[in-house]
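note to self: dont lose this again. the chain is below, predicted strucutre after it. 284 aa total, dont forget to put it in the shared folder this time
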Amino acid sequence: MAEQREAGAALALLGPASLMMLLMLVVPLGFLARDSLNRYDPNELMIAAVTSANYLRFFEDPFYWNVLVTTIRVSVIVTVVCLALGLPMAWRLARSTSRWKSALVVLTVLPLFIGSTTRTAGWMILFARGGMLDILSRDLLHAGTVNLMYSEPAVIAGIIAINLPFTVLTLQSVFEGIDPRLEEAAASMGAAPSRAFWRIVFPLALPGVTIAAVLCFILCMNAFATPVLLGGPRFQMMAPLLFWAFNSDNNWPFAGAIAFILMGTTLGLTGLANLVIPRRYQAR
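---
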């Protein structure tokens, strides 16, 4: 009876949220999956059919294939950089005993109070011709004109600025869950702080590090405003391409295929990372 009551209580708690997710997420995705198999006609727009032509069009056209490859490349670079910058920051915050720790956490969270579009507009002022970098390069360094707008490095920098706080906060919570006495024990046996971190703390934190990497990767794969504003029309990533297919051509079947290719690629790569990274580290 006790187990039945616990099961009933769990169902009562999870039922409304599960039903809401089913109605607001799964059902629309089902309709979108059906639309992706329809046929597009410029005059009639969407014609009911069951065809894989939309998916074949994506993979057979080098332009769309290159957009997918660019999106994956940018996402991997952003994830690696965010982990490289976020690990020491999160570790320092987690082990800090200063009275200013709360202020440092607030400073880390503060960029999240500003919209991604507003922050991207700040990067536009920094990167554009006549912007701060251009003025510093011409007037102080005499190194010529600097114009990073509408380039891949500008997009990478903008997405890093957006994703880094999420990475730091995730990693901080992971490090705070690891007992600091483990490091003290390693130090008492002569291990340097860096060796204690990589041999003891990092393996314990690896599941959380993987979660932070997956979160950063997913956010980057679905980035929209930053690629549009900093990349311009010549630099394409999957989310702006999806919007273009929906909005410009009204080609809902092809847009649905793009959406599911993006979702499948993101889920496939994150699942692969969850399988490969812990096993490879344990093998060492």
